[in-house]
Give the backbone structure.
Amino acid sequence: MQSPLIQELIEAFRVLPGVGPKSAQRMAYHLLERNKSGGLLLSQALSKAVEEVGHCSLCRTLTEEETCSICQSARRATGELCIVESPADVGVIEQSGIFQGQYFVLMGHLSPIDGIGPKQIGLDLLESRLSDGSVSELIIATNPTVEGEATAHYIQQMAIKQGVVVSRLAQGIPMGGELEYLDSGTLSQAFLARRSM
Amino acid sequence: MQSPLIQELIEAFRVLPGVGPKSAQRMAYHLLERNKSGGLLLSQALSKAVEEVGHCSLCRTLTEEETCSICQSARRATGELCIVESPADVGVIEQSGIFQGQYFVLMGHLSPIDGIGPKQIGLDLLESRLSDGSVSELIIATNPTVEGEATAHYIQQMAIKQGVVVSRLAQGIPMGGELEYLDSGTLSQAFLARRSM
Ligand SMILES: [Zn+2]
Ligand SMILES: [Zn+2]
């Protein structure tokens, strides 16, 4: 008995993480009853981002340009390269203000069971970057989970082979926690107390 | 340092109820990293619904047609007219299966302090409907809040003037609760035990 367009909209909202049938319904009604212009802006922002945002050719983070603003900045070419799993991790490290170098974004972690090997997380690109002599220190900031640790170990071996100093964020990150949800203080601690590996 | 398009998308997600900066960011990254096609479908469903969904000319609920499917159905012309505050309330009553009549959707409640009087919630339309003799019983299912009760009282007076029997959902609805979040059982109870007023 529900309007088909509203039903489709409610189902479409289910693609969002953490949105079940009840919240999807609330979202649809909220926009249609009270904020159609906000709904239209969201629709436009979404289609524009989906169509134009791709990956930085240097660090693999999400960007609508060929290379992201951090990779473009000469100020950031300090020789320190921080490895993270996701663009959200870049965001939280940038917020803390503790790190001035560049990033390499894996867009995931090694997960052989899901068919995600070194190539899928861009480690061929990382290896050629390590071999060109521009990286003086590799700071590994993958999540302290089983997969994140395995990925860190793999990258560490790669860096050792290339003769690049490697360190890993350590102190302050709770086991099993996710970088994305850390506060800036804890994260700054983890940067300052990073241990070589 | 964030991509402008991603930043705009994150801000756009804030129009959704219950979505703060952190969840907005998670939603944006989730779609861009893992489900671009889902994001595009959401964008399309949203613009289509925003552009085409309006109000039923008979009951005021949200619909993309001139009149909604319930108002169109001859089976539903039982003479019972249920007054609710929102389209979501129609949904939850329909789910319970307890009610076979038609609805009138206020799209809000009386709230003089916000400039919402009888006209803003369509009571002129309701009054002309009550006067045409098609309604044998008015079942008021506004929320059991202060504003919902005041609105119920106003409509009750209107119905009495028109000589239409009025009842109000009563038993089982917790004070201060919102109809939209009730389970079907409680709601069915409230229908069966409705008291005349
Ligand atoms: Zn980049
Ligand atoms: Zn209708």
Notes: Chain B has two domains: 4-52, 62-168. Residues A 56, 58-59, 61, 67-68, 70-71 surround zinc ion (ligand 1) (CB under 6 Å). Helices of chain B lie at 4-13, 21-34, 36-52, 69-72, 87-96, 123-131, 146-161, 184-192.
